[in-house]
Amino acid sequence: MSRPSPCAGCRDGEAVGFDIAMAFQPIMDLQTGQPFAYEALVRGPAGESAASVLEKVTPENRYAFDQQCRVKAIQGAARAGLLDGPARLSINFLPNAVYSPQACIQLTLATAAALDFPTDRLIFEFTENEEMTDPTHVSNIVASYQKMGFGVALDDFGAGHAGLNLLARFQPDIIKLDMELIRGLDASLPRRIIIDGVMKMCAALGVEVIAEGIETRAELDALREIGVRYIQGYLFARPGFQSLPAVDPIDVRAARAA
Which InterPro entries does the record match to this protein (predicted)? Predict the structure, then answer.
């Protein structure tokens, strides 16, 4: 059976109108002390901030921008050596830029095939902060991606438009706790109770949890005590521009054993 043909928006990479590059930040696994995945973060071609790139995205070029982010993430991760280890690649995408999950994935699949990049090592991540104009369409994207063997992550959980209603509608493979829940966690009983409750709920739903934005050892220790396994933040590494930043795994293992 032939694959669906990509539509004009998928093919028209020139419609972006500006160049982009990627930085990569590790998501660490406290059980192994090694990166579980690397998140691809958009940058300008000379390392300019994500904000300076995203301000150029318009309704007219959003579709092509989403496609190019996928391509650049896979190409950049392969060049940086991600395939030399077992870590996965997490790619941010815009649900409102996906017209058809089957058609709009074709460029991603072709890019991965050209680089011998296993598609089961891809995670597609979208943020709860983006307003869901059509939750049914988003549910279809999530179900389609999971059926294709991709991981799906919901970012900024707890800070967006839908919250628990979104999680009730569909279950991603991963949720990423909003960093505002993490900030000062060690000194905030309400935050610890909320995260503990989210962990129990996600365990019952079969959803993994990543805590992002960790900047202090005290925050990390509090998360470890609650039972969070996957963590991301400046405490371990800042994003590496077009590279996988070095991470000292001893730090993570020491935190686990403390």
Answer: Cyclic-di-GMP_PDE-like (IPR050706), EAL_dom (IPR001633), EAL_sf (IPR035919)
Q: What is the three-state SS of 102-120?
A: HHHCHHHHHHHHHCCCCHH
Predicted confidence (pLDDT) at residue 37 exceeds the cutoff of 70: yes
CA distance 230 to 227: 9
CA angle 62, 70, 172 (to 5 degrees): 95
Work out the mean pLDDT of the chain and round it to a whole number. Answer: 88
Closest CA to 33 of 240, 243, 229, 237: 229
What is the predicted pLDDT for the residue at 167?
Answer: 85
Residues 6+ apart with CB under 8 A from 100: 4, 7
CB 98, CB 65: distance < 8 Å: no
**By three-state DSSP, how is residue 37 classified?**
strand
